[in-house]
Amino acid sequence: MKNHCAQTSLSGVLLDELIFEILSWLPAILLLRFRCICKSWKSLISDPNFIKLHLQRAPKNANLILTLIGNHGKRSAISCSFRSLLHHNPSSPTTVVAENLHYRLKLMKHTGIGVSCNGLICLVRAFPRNFRGNEFHKYRVGLWNPVTKLFSKRSADLLVKVEGRAFDSAEFRFWYDKLTKTYKVVAVLVDSGASVENLERTEVRVYRFGDNTRCFVSA
Amino acid sequence: MAEKASPSSNSISLKTVDGKIFKVSPAIANQMLTIQPLIKDSDSSTIISLPDVAAFHLTKIIEYLEGKPAAAPSAVDAFEAQFVKDLSPEELKGLLIAVGYLKVNGLVDLMANTVAKLIENKSVEYVRKFFGVVNDFTPAEEAKCRQEHAWAFDGVDED
C-alpha cells in the first residue's frame, strides 16, 4: 500500500490552510527562517490571524524571554525553555533573539524595557515635561516582538497622560486577558511627593491595548 | 470491502480515489466534518466518493478514530506518538492533506504538529522541495530576507 500519495493534486487553498496550521506549531525563531521560503509564506507569517493563533499555541512551547543587562548597560534578549530552568539543565540551548537591545531601543527612542509575556516585550517611552527631562507627563507603551522585530502600530500604542502633576516614576506590567482577547497594561505611577508636603502619591491604572481605554483607576 | 454497499447495513460507505470501498459506522463518519452534511441525506445504499483520499490514508484515519477513544486518557499521548511513528515524511504529508481535506476531528492538529516537528531543523531548500513551493523571490529579495535574520545591528559602532 505504498506509493499512493501521488494524488496530492489538491487546490492551493487547502495547502495554504494546512501550512497555516503547520507553521502555527513552530517556535517563533523558526518562523524567521521560513519567511524566506516564498512571498506567500512571508505574508502569512505576518498575518494578524496567524499571529493570534500562534500566540494561543505558544505557551505549549513553554519558552521564556529574559532580558539581560551586561557591562555598560548592554542589553540582550534571550529565549530559553521553562523546563531547562526548572531542571537546571545548563546544556540545553538558549537562543539569543536580540542582541544590543539598548541600541535598538535608542533608535526607537524608547527609554525602558518592561516585562515580557507571550514572547512580546513591553517597551516604554517617557516624554519629559521640561528640558531638564526629570519629570514626565506622558508615557507611550508599545509591544515589541524581538524575533519578528514587529512593533505594535502607533494606533495601538498606549498613551498614559498624567494630568496636572508630574510623576517621577512609573512601572508597567502587561498580560494577556484570555476573556477579552486583548493585552492589558497596568501602570503604577508614583509621585514621591518631594514637592508637595512630603506626601507620596501612587496611582494605579489599567489600560486595554488597542482602544486606549482606561478600564480601572485607583488612586 | 464489498464493491456494492449492502442495503441492510446501517453503515456509511466511503469510496477512495483508488477505488476501494470502506464501510464505517455513522459515529466514525460524523467526525469527518467535510462529509458530515452528506451523511444526513444518504441512505444505506449511498456511496460517498472521496476524490482526494487514498485507501492507505483512510485506513489510517479510521485506525485513529477507532483507536483514540479506546485508549485510556493517560495513554492518548502514547497512542498518538505510536500512530505517527512509522510514517515516512511523504506519508506524513499525504496523510496531512487527506486529513485536512476531510477535516478529521483532532487529527488535523496532530498531523500539523507532527509535520512541524519534521521540518523544524530543515533548511529553507528542503522545506520548499517538500511542499513543492516555488521560490518567487528575486535573488536580491531573498538575500535581503535572509539578512534580516541575522540581528540587524551587529557590528554597528556604538556611541
Summarize the entry for a quick read.
By secondary structure, chain A is of the alpha+beta class.
- Helix/strand structural class of chain A: alpha+beta
So what's the overall shape of chain A? elongated
Estimate percent helicity of chain B: 40-55%
Q: The biggest beta sheet of chain A, please?
A: 5 strands, antiparallel
Q: Name the CATH superfamily assignment of the domain at 12-119 in chain B.
A: Potassium Channel Kv1.1, Chain A
Low-confidence stretches of chain A: 1-9
Account of the 3D structure:
The complex is a heterodimer of chains A (219) and B (159). Chain A is an alpha+beta fold. Chain A folds into three domains: 13-60, no CATH class; 62-107, no CATH class; 109-219. Chain A contains six helices and twelve strands. In chain A, strands 4, 5, 6, 7 and 8 form a five-stranded antiparallel beta sheet that branches. In chain A, strands 9-10-11-12 form a four-stranded antiparallel beta sheet, with no helix packed on it. Chain A has a three-stranded antiparallel beta sheet with strand order 1-2-3. The radius of gyration of chain A is 21 Å and the shape is elongated. Chain B is mostly helical. Chain B has a domain at 12-119: 2-Layer Sandwich (Potassium Channel Kv1.1, Chain A). Chain B has helices at residues 26-29, 36-40, 55-70, 76-85, 89-102, 107-119, 124-131, 139-149, and strands spanning 12-15, 21-24, 47-49. Chain B has a three-stranded mixed beta sheet with strand order 2-1-3. In chain B, α3 (55-70) runs antiparallel to α4 (76-85) and α5 packs antiparallel against α6 (107-119). Chain B is globular and about 60 Å long. Chain B starts with 11 loop residues before the first strand and ends in a 10-residue tail after the last helix. The chains are: A alpha+beta (219), B mainly alpha (159). Chain A binds chain B through residues 1-2, 4-5, 7-10, 14-15, 17-19, 21-27, 30, 32-39, 41-42, 96, 98-100, 103-104, 149, and chain B through 17-18, 52, 54-57, 59, 90-91, 93-97, 100-101, 108-109, 112-113, 115-117, 119-120, 124, 127-128, 131, 133-137, 142, 145-146, 148-149, 151-154, 156, 158.
